[in-house]
Write a structure and sequence with these properties.
- This protein has 310 residues and is α+β, with helices and mostly antiparallel strands.
- The chain folds into 2 domains: 2-157, Ribosomal Protein S5, domain 2, CATH 3.30.230.10; 168-307, GHMP kinase, C-terminal domain (Alpha-Beta Plaits), CATH 3.30.70.890.
- The protein is built from 9 helices and 11 strands.
- It has helices spanning 65-78, 101-116, 123-138, 144-150, 185-198, 200-222, 226-242, 248-259, 283-295; strands at residues 2-14, 25-41, 47-50, 53-56, 85-91, 155-157, 164-165, 173-178, 264-268, 275-280, 300-305.
- The strands form 2 sheets. Strands 1, 2, 3, 4, 5, 6 and 7 form a 7-stranded mixed β-sheet that branches. A 4-stranded antiparallel β-sheet has the order 9-10-8-11.
- The longest helix has 23 residues, at 200-222.
- Bound molecules: (3R)-3-hydroxy-3-methyl-5-(phosphonooxy)pentanoic acid.
Length: 310
Amino acid sequence: MKATGISNGKIILMGEHSVVYGEPAIAIPFFATAIETTIKTTNGPVSLDCFFYKGPLSQAPKRLLNLVTVIIETVKKLDKPLKNFDITINSTIPAERGMGSSAAVAVATIRALFHYFEESLSNDVLLELTNISETIAHGNPSGLDAAMTSGTSPLYYIKGQKFEFFPLKVSAYLVVADTGITGQTKEAVENIALLYHSDPKKTDDSIKQLGQLAKEAKQAIQQNKTNQLGVYMTQAHTLLDSLGVSNTILNTLVHTSLESGALGAKLTGGGRGGCMIALAKNKEHASQLSDVLLNAGAKHTWIYNMRKDD
Ligand code: PMV
């Protein structure tokens, strides 16, 4: 017997980190990158085959603790024995680059296990199980990655609130650039938590400003004000940098994009590596920006049409 489960990458347009503290975020499912998990019947202990490891599940390295835990918890929830199947994970989401790969692996694997055992899976159970994995990966997840990597529409997301689907319909293109450097979401989230202790007032001000920028970006999107949206993106990057979650290459790529006429640019996701995004006026401009970013050191770029929700 064989069953599969799928999920997709995600891009946070506005609100990473501040979303952890209850501020709004705007995020987009990113179908250019995806994960498929396949479960196949075998005899004996469960084995795992993924980018980082191939072998028995019980001997998987510590870095896969979130995945191993979610597999164990999902099988427990299904009330099935943890044996007699293999798990294979194929991913085009670059790992640890702010595209939600850890949540996406969990989502695809939970879906595959439910399919395999022929049980229906509610969205609530999917998110609850994914967040077990995300808590191990990030410490204090907002739930945004779980929602986006399992969802098909952009969201205006506030932690703990009902999902607000948010069609983008903006006449602009996003260029997504991968620095090729592993992001450090856990460390970045912890760094902000430490700043909250050492300088609560300043940190809270920055988090609130990031939230305010996400709210204003929402309005700019609704009114198709792309120049304004770009300004908010760049302001968000400056704040994220001041909170210690950017790095030199991200700052260089942001700076280079702006010099090449981007309407705005910022890091996306956990930061300290991973990916950045730049807002381009049109398709041609996006393609120019993509070349400029590759020349400036980006390892890979993707172009996303923000009107495609039409
Ligand atoms: O780096 P990623 O793709 O896991 O994104 C993390 C987003 C944060 O806002 C920094 C954390 C969260 O749980 O929302």
